[in-house]
Please model this.
Amino acid sequence: MQAANDDQAAHEAYILLLLSDANLPTGSFVASAGLESYIKHGFFSASAQPEGASLFDNSSSGSLESDPTSFKDMPNPPRLTSATIRFLQDSVQSYARSALPFVGGVHDIVEKVLSSPEDLDNLQEIMQLDTLYESMTLNHVARRASKAQGVALLTLYTKGFSEPLWIPRSRSPLSKAMTSLIEGLKLKIRKGDTPGHLPICWAVLAAALGLTRERSQHLHSFLHARALLSASVRLNTVGPYAAQQLLLHVVQPMVENAVRVSKDLQIRFGQPEVSREGDLELAADEDDGPANTWPLGEILSSRHDQQHSRIFNS
Amino acid sequence: MHGRGQATLEAFGRDAVFSDLSFTYPLKLISPKIPAANPVAIAYVLSYGGGLISGDQIELNVETRKEATLILLTQGSTKVFPSRTIDRIRASDVFARQQDGVTPPDTTRQSLEAKVASGSNLVLLPDPVTCFAGSIYTQVQTFRLERGASLCVLDWYTSGRMSRGEEWVFERYRSVNEIWIDGKRAARDVMLLEEPNGRSVLPLAPRTLKARMAPYSCYATLFLIGPAVAPVLSYVEQEMRSVTQFQASAPAELVWSFSPLEHGGIVRAAGVETETVKFWLKRILIPLQSTIGAEAFDKILV
Model:
């Protein structure tokens, strides 16, 4: 049992190495998730920064060994760095709240495929969540970016991660079932039957590669934050070394908190009415589903195409 | 208190007639007569005392048939008073219950279920919701449209009782708008505003709601669906096309966006002042006059 767990952990660690490659062709390098537009609209300017508010938790309970009075002498981070941190906080929190319930829900479905690969309902269930995500993503710029990145991830699996046919004895017997599920989903996207959004396709890819549910959600949130920092470097608001510093010292707790808050949020559909065609109702509203928590980010990222000049697609 | 209401509007030639207009305390529906060339009716959705106290539940069902146009308005902003027990229960306990999927017992809740028949129109242009410090508010609105029906829905809220210096200090605001067209979910917009819960994310201080919403104190979302709002839609699209955003040196007093949907679109706006947002909304809604008539148009967003 212990040996099996070790194997699983080693496999997962290796998959994490592969998926964390910043050069993976997933289209994330053309997305800034609203950051470019946010800056263009003047929200990184000195006048947009809150006065007197500290970014840091200066309460004495915050750090056990340090003397709270010593905070007074600490330097503030440069303005652009503070502004970047604030954007990251709002963006990561809102994206996690909107997308992680879908990542979790789709991951659960793909795990069922592992136990019963012949069940075609699984694809239908994934498409239901995909369609729901589309109806909840009303910002056309975010929709566009999400669909482009989603289908790129599926292509990454079929072209880059599926087991090659020339491997004589299959090491992963499920690779075939996964490849057929993903090919099926790609076909549905190409025919326009389902939009193929990023969190949906991410969950399919991550589950197909054997990442656990929570690891899939965590890595998805981390990659969202890292893509924002890569965009910051290209927009010249953060230097490349500072971006690494932020990733290690600031983004880690931020991502962990966002995942903790949103990982168990549920999407529950009601029972389908036999007589009725169309989309499924959600089960009685229970306050704990996916939600947008940052209306300002929604407005500014929707205005992306209004920028006079831009280097990103979102 | 649990108030219920039903409003069913039909058209007979040029006349709009309520075949049902009923309500129970503390909800009140008042329909003033307006001269109109088309079958248009206004109903004011009122609550006694002009506000909702904690635990109040309002459930409203509306239906429009044939060629009828129903305009739902309010008189003054919907004030949501603070939760009675929030002072006694520590906030963390409230959040713990929320995470179990249980709505806090003191939630003030308004729900609207609307059926809009083909060729008929529903126009919902209330005053903004104002959540006072300590209040917990949930609003769930579901619109079921037949193909060819039209919808104009404004959902907006302010930062609180500004006269007392309140800025984004309510406990929780949650608003759900779901639009179905011909059995398909065209839009489900869920906005959730609350202080970040849980542990502090060291080394960072928790990002407060106020900081997330700054510098604006009023946010609005306007859903536009169907043939009757086509003139508004093309006006908004034209306005958006004329925007060219250069590098700004500071955030604007008012910022807005438009995203097209299959049968219409969604407008969002944020402003430093509620009045700025209201004035701007009324301006982009001017083409609605051709649908609802000048008399009714004078009564919206006043």
The first strand of chain B starts at residue 2 and ends at 12. Residues 88-102 of chain B have pLDDT under 50 and may be disordered. The longest helix of chain B spans residues 230-241.
